[in-house]
Write a structure and sequence with these properties.
binds guanosine-5'-diphosphate, Glycosyl transferase, 344 residues, seven-stranded mixed sheet, binds manganese (II) ion, Spore Coat Polysaccharide Biosynthesis Protein SpsA, Chain A, alpha-1,2-mannosyltransferase activity, three-stranded antiparallel sheet, transferase
Amino acid sequence: KDMYGITTDSIPPARISYDEPVAGERVNAAIVVLVRNSELNGLRKSMRMFEDRFNRRFKYPYVLLNDEPFTQEFKDGISAITKNELRFGTLNETYWGYSKSVTPEKTAEKLEYNKNRYLYGGSLSYRFMCRFQSGLFYKHPLVADLDWYWRLEPDVEYYCDIDYDPFVYMKKKGLKYGFTIAPREGRRTVETLWHHTREWIKKNPHLLPENSLVNWVMGTDGNYNLCHFWSNFEIVDLSLYRSEAYESYFNYLDDAQGFFYERWGDAPIHSIAATLLLHKGQIHWFEDIGYQHPGNMHCPRDPAMHAKCICDPGKAYTYRSACQTRFAKVNNMTKARMLEIIHD
Ligand code: GDP
Ligand code: MN
């Protein structure tokens, strides 16, 4: 008899073993997390849900990165959540540092000026983080060998059973970039980002495809409409970021000082690049993946999708988001038309 006084062999076996590895095609991928030691509890929460909804069965390894060495307490606390492989890494100055184009002194002045203008306006570490996530993470030795990645953050929630492999799904469909939530960026954080993007485009039309979804981020007036994919969730074929075009774009932006003198986020940068370099058939909205990051929530309203979820679609931000609506409607634009608009 067990602790409840029930004869154990009378208990029927579980109908499905969620620990059973899933057979079928795999991709060379990992779940990549940038996190601080102080966020142990928040990450435990994210991973508990992520494991329960998906990774307990699909068993992708985790890559955990930090600009400081992980403490033993952190490693133990994370190890208790999953039986899957954990790879811990510390970032050196190559990955966590200033752009060559800026100085610490002038950065300090800009942080002082911006500290009350927007969220994280006065934070230096936030800027190192955004620069790392924009142009460096995929070159880190623990990430460099991966073909795909799925970004996870502390304090997010996953609401729906994910009973298929989104990496394999994307690969089979020729998809390169997957997202759940598409909000609008705060204008003041990216004051000159679009100006520099336009300059880069004018100098590098040979790096751009004949058709792209740039229409999603650019209005008919040739300006940036602030739409972006929220990068705290993203599933990406890393060949996008390792392309000659992306490398050139990131280096151009790194030279333009905005990671430090403004507060350019990796989300608008990834999004502008993805829409410039990909066409509509390569970018996917995972409507079936209910998800929350502090600030915004997505919950599918389609009944078949919602059947696997524990969230309220009536409270979803995504069906009210103008950028999301635009994504559903927008079509590819030719390179010729785009160049005409941005040269005006
Ligand atoms: P938000 O999502 O834009 O509000 O910013 P977060 O504070 O969530 O940061 C984004 C991601 O980067 C999260 O995964 C954080 O854990 C991570 N992060 C942010 N700043 C730092 C930092 O200074 N060091 C480390 N190691 N991780 C950071
Ligand atoms: Mn976050």
